[in-house]
Please model this.
Amino acid sequence: MAFKNFRMRQDAENWFSNIRDQKPIRTKFDLYYFCLMLGLAANRRSEPTKHCPEVTDFTDNFVSDYKPYQRLIIGLLIRAELSRLGVSVTEKDEVRKLFVDLVNPQNPTNLTDSGMDRLNEYSSGGYDYLAEKLDSKPYHVEEFLRTYARLLRGAVAQNPNWKGS
Model:
């Protein structure tokens, strides 16, 4: 049975083109992760094909550097979706329904197709947020990482679900 993959918009790939091969960036998943964390922290999501009809399926699983953080990433996704839906973690039936919708332990990613769609939407939304906040695409990885860290700290500070993180 085929499952949905991690996807990246072509405009996002182009935007990162000058730094994608500069260390410490080693994989396309690194770029996806930058966007994903901003999307989750800023509560931003968008349909990847809405702004850019060209998307690339680039892997069907968490790459080895991110595998140890797979459950944390899924937990952040669940927390973001609970917040978006206005569901408290104390509403057990609603939380259970969300888990059934998003989580599939039989899939190597531990996500359902719907869960993978949501994750890709948060990554796409994070790219939108990043592109809106920066005047131009990045040319030097060191400068990008400093700016990214500042943007992420700001988004986390504004997100009531991430207070104290």
In short: Residues 35 and 130 are 7 Å apart (CA to CA). The first strand starts at residue 6 and ends at 9. The chain has one domain: 6-162. The mean pLDDT is 90.
